[in-house]
């Protein structure tokens, strides 16, 4: 009975951590609604886009008489804002945000809604939204990666509790944790990143990608814990610390300080396409 209870507690902790990491990340979309000119407007401002098609910014409202414009430019670029007018179709205003077709490209954008007497801006609490473009990641790579990384977090939590209670399966659970972390973070993770950003690894020593680096730090923590188990030197303490380290670093929002293309490359691609047209 105690074993089942420990797994339930571990699952709740892991699920809560994963949910927090997801909703606080820089790629989590803004879903909200406002009332403007006595009309409700529902909207989603995405912060991530997969694939090479253009991105549609959609506002839902029954009011057909609004003037809505989308403004965008490459992140950190000194260029002027580009303006795109929304078109109304079947209860929706649709604004087209052009795909830079540069992996890891980031654009700044915001929306202005106007009538004859008033103008409001979305988002309302900041100057603009940042959206990152990536390649299509096939589900056969993405789903196993997500499941196995969740499993690694679950096992890390379960192993830490096992060590805290000084139970007998710390050694075996440590091996399972390391195995899941290796497969999810160092085999499937780089594969997903290759599809998304055309790079297998952009953390240390090749770059500063925080997602890669925190995965590496988690592995180092668990390898040290395994070493302490093998040397029989405070093994439970090593496992508890490794579990805490992994919990803390995976509370860091996902995709924070992730891959980012230089705005000059984005502007170059935009100029070349404009010339071709």
Task: Furnish the topology, listing elements before pairings.
Elements: H1 2-23, E1 30-36, E2 39-45, E3 48-50, E4 55-60, E5 67-74, E6 82-85, E7 87-89, E8 92-97, E9 106-114, E10 119-122, E11 129-134, H2 139-164, H3 170-197, H4 210-230, H5 235-249, H6 263-276
Helix pairs in contact: 1-2, 2-3, 2-5, 3-4, 4-5
- The run of helices and strands is HEEEEEEEEEEEHHHHH
Q: Return the average pLDDT rounded to an integer.
A: 89
Distance between the termini: 69 Å
Q: What percent of the residues sit in helical stretches (DSSP H or I)?
A: 40-55%
Describe the protein.
The chain is 45% helix and 23% strand. It is of the alpha+beta class and 277 residues long. It folds into 2 domains: 2-24 and 137-249, no CATH class; 30-134, Immunoglobulins (Immunoglobulin-like, Sandwich), CATH 2.60.40. Helix 4 runs antiparallel to helix 5 (235-249).
């Amino acid at each position: 009975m105690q074993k089942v209870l420990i797994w339930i507690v571990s699952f709740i902790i892991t699920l809560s951590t994963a949910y927090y990491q997801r909703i606080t990340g820089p790629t989590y979309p803004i879903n909200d609604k406002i009332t403007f000119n006595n009309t409700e407007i529902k909207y989603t401002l995405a912060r991530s886009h997969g694939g090479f098609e253009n991105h549609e910014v959609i506002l839902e409202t029954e009011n057909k008489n609004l003037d809505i414009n989308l403004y965008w430019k490459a992140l950190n670029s000194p260029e002027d804002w580009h303006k795109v007018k929304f078109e109304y179709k079947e209860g929706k205003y649709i604004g087209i945000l052009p795909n830079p077709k540069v992996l890891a490209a980031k654009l700044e954008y915001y929306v202005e809604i106007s009538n004859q007497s008033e103008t409001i801006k979305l988002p309302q609490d900041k100057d603009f939204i940042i959206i990152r473009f990536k390649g299509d990641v096939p589900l056969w790579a993405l789903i196993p990666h997500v499941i196995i990384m969740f499993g690694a977090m679950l096992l890390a939590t379960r192993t830490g509790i096992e060590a805290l209670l000084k139970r007998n399966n710390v050694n075996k659970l440590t091996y399972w944790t390391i195995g899941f972390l290796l497969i999810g973070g160092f085999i499937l993770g780089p594969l997903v990143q290759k599809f998304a950003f055309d790079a297998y690894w952009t953390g240390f020593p090749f770059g500063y990608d925080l997602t890669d680096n925190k995965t590496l730090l988690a592995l180092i923590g668990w390898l040290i814990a395994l070493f302490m188990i093998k040397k029989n030197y405070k093994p439970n303490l090593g496992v508890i610390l490794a579990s805490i380290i992994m919990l803390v670093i995976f509370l860091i929002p996902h995709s924070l300080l992730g891959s980012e293309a230089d705005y000059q490359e984005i502007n170059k691609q935009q100029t070349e396409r404009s010339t071709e047209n």
